Structure formats: C-alpha cells, structure tokens
Amino acid sequence: MKAEIITIGDEILIGQIVDTNSAWLGKEFNKIGIGVTHIASVSDDADAISEALLQAENRADIIIITGGLGPTKDDVTKQTLADYFQTKLVENPKVKDWITKIFTNRKLPLIEANLQQAFVPESCEVLFNRNGTAPGMWFDKGNKTIISMPGVPFEMKSIFSEECLHRLQKKYALPFILHRTILTCGIGESFLAQKIETFENELPDFFKLAYLPDVGMVKLRLSAQHTDEQFLNQCMDNQVKKLYSLVSEYIYGENEETLAGNVGKLLIKHKQTLATAESCTGGYVAHLITSIPGSSAYYLGSIISYANEIKTNELHVSEDLLLEKGAVSEECVKQMAENIRKKFKTNYAIATSGIAGPTGGSPDKPVGTVWIAVSTPTDTVTKLFNMGDNRERTIQRTAIQALDLLRKELVKL
Question: Is the pLDDT of residue 160 over 80?
Fold first, then answer.
C-alpha cells in the first residue's frame, strides 16, 4: 500500500515556513503499515495542483493534500479539486452551522469570505474540523483515496487522527507494522555495522534495519511488518535480544529515551548525586542533565570554569599544574572532577576541558582535543578524545561522551 503527500503553498517553496506536516503524516502512515513513497510541494496554482494530483494517482493508492483551503483568494485548492473531479461546489449545511457557531461564540462578524468555507465539492465526503473553519474532504476514486486537509498543523493532525485513520484501516487490508529503535553511544556507525554484520545478514525477510547516525550516537531502527501481530511482536523481541547480546556495552536505551534521561534513572535508582565542572562545553552538559524533568532529585549544580583563574579559585586546580600541563590535560580535568565532587558533596562528578576551536590548537593539542573525567566515590576515570574541527559538534559530542562515561560507571553499581 503506497501513499503520497502533496503540500500546497508558496510559503513552503520560498522557505518562509518548514513543512512539518509531511514528517508527521509519514510517521502516522508508518504506524498502520502504509509506506509514503513520494512527497511533493507545489505552489498555490490550479495547474500545478492538478498536475501533481494526476502524477500522484499514477504512483499511489492514497493521496494526502494539505494546504490551500483558507478563506482568501490565493487559496485555490477547493475549486481546483472540484474541477479535477468534474463536479461543482455546494454549500454544506453542517459546515455552515459550525462556522456560524465559531464566529458567534467569539463575537466576531461573519463575513462572506468565511461563509465560503462551507462550500465543498459535491462529490466529496466532508471531514469535520473541530479546530477551524475549513473542513477536510475525502474523495473515493475506485480503490484510490484522495484526502484534502488544511495546512495548519494542529487542524490537519486533528482531522487525520479523528476522521481519516479509522476509515483508511477499514477500507484497506493493512499489515501490522512494528518499530524498535535501539540507541547506542560511544561507537561510530561503520564500527557498529561491522560488529552486527552477521546479525544484519540473517534478519528475516520481513525485517529492515536502518542506521540513523546523530552527533555522538547511532540509532538502530528495526522495522517489521506481518499479518500476525503476536508473531510479529515475538520476532521483534528475539531480534532485539540478539542485538543486546552483540553490542550491549554501547546501548543506553530504546525509542524516545535520551542519554541524559537514562543517566538520571540510574542515579535515582542507586540514590546517587551528581555535579559538573565544565570548561569547553560551557554548560552544555548541565543543560542536557537539567532538560530532564525531576533532575533536581540528583543534580546539584555546576561551575563553568572557562577561565584558568576560575579553575584555580573555584575548583582549586593547581596553578603549577596549569603552567606545566595546561588546562587541556588529564591532570587538570581530573582535579576539576574530584574537586567539584568534594565542593558540592556529591557521589559523582563530570568535568570537561578541551579546545573547541576554530582557533587555539597546537601541533600536540589540535583543535578538537578534549579531556573528560568522571569522579566516582572510589576512583576517577579519564579519557582523551579528538572531536574534530567543528566547534558546535565538538561541544555536543563532548557532552554526550561525558554522560556516556558516567553511564558506564553507574551500570557497574
């Protein structure tokens, strides 16, 4: 079963707004076993809309159109659809009553442009829009379905979820589809692929594996579809177990879980506390930690020791050490972590120090050189990284690696 999405609006084509509707619809279709094979964006032009629709009919079973249904003259989708299906616009009493109710409740004048929203192509089935005045429209053309909805995201989502999903599932015999996303950190995409090469080659035919690299991490998305839901769930559990047996040391969670959230759960589970001392990351580690609701239960705070005098005065890093080894050194980051832990009286502490760039590097310490330390109740773990020459990614990667280094210590408890 194939679907195509057509978004209408000059504002999309000139980059004035970002098309988030297609991404959301793609996810919703995927959940019910329908694959989106094409996405097109066209201008507010009758010929462009008709041409896109004609091409979509040759490729897809289900066509979703969003946009161009407003009350102004540039919104031509509704009339174009009436012409395309060789029908006329007729007033729908239920839509008219709904529009009248909206304007009456808001104590606003009801002008002719708003009343025009009640006119729809005679051959369509109206889809109720509880969040606006422009109704959605459903057209059946043999075994094909064409759905037109407003481009306003919250209106579109409401119509699709409440009016379209169950109808599509009723009309088409859809397979069960299942996704599991395994989240990894601390290993590059190519090295990860090498470790699970045999696993990937032995996947059942109805499974797909996708690599989704991000800054400092790689997501592994397992997708499968089958007519037997119970069998599908069992197969998915078995494949996920195989993945864990191969690369468990790099896995920090699944699906929508975050690394900071996983670390937070471990700290709460073991009743441990955390502080941070940041130099090159400038508070980004703290930002990730505190982005998790409830992080105040385990996170006490941070010192951003960007300047050496702050490292000395607030974190008691030795001046002699800074002169001899420099701020970007194992010795410095170790003292930062140990001293913030003592100062804040926490169980654990993270420290970062590096050269984010684009300047400041040297032959022995090039741009991207980063030292990370995690101080524990019994030891201090340090690790050297080269994060590359992009400042933003260096900061992000450093924060991710710092949290992962802490996670690996916490899983030992």
Answer: yes
How many residues in total does the chain contain?
413
- Which residue from 383, 375, 379, 378 is spatially nearest to 400, judged by alpha carbons? 383
* Rg of the chain, C-alpha, whole Å: 28
Query: CB-based contacts of 356: which residues, under 8 Å, 6+ apart?
Result: 280, 367, 368, 391, 394, 395
What count of other Cβ atoms lies within 10 Å of the Cβ of residue 169?
Answer: 13
Residue showing tokens 């025009």:
116
Parse the chain into domains and list their residue ranges. Answer: 2-171, 176-254, 259-410
Quick one: DSSP state of residue 43?
-
Alpha carbon 147 to its chain centroid, in Å, reads: 26
Q: Which CATH superfamily is domain 2-171 in?
A: MoaB/Mog-like domain (3.40.980.10)
Helix ranges restricted to H, 85-179: 93-105, 112-115, 153-159, 165-171
Q: What are 372's two structure tokens?
A: 């990370």
Q: What angle do CA 250, 252, 254 make, to 5 degrees?
A: 120
- How far apart CA 182 and CA 408 sit, in angstroms, is 17
Least confident residue range of 71-80, 295-304, 382-391: 71-80
- Tell me, which fold does domain 176-254 have in CATH? Alpha-Beta Plaits (3.30.70)
Distance in angstroms (rounded) separating the CA atoms of residues 8 and 163: 21
This model's pTM is above 0.90 = no
Select the CATH number that applies to the domain covering 259-410 from these four: 3.40.50.300, 2.40.30.20, 3.90.950.20, 1.10.10.10: 3.90.950.20
Question: Is the Cβ–Cβ distance between 66 and 7 less than 8 Å?
Answer: yes
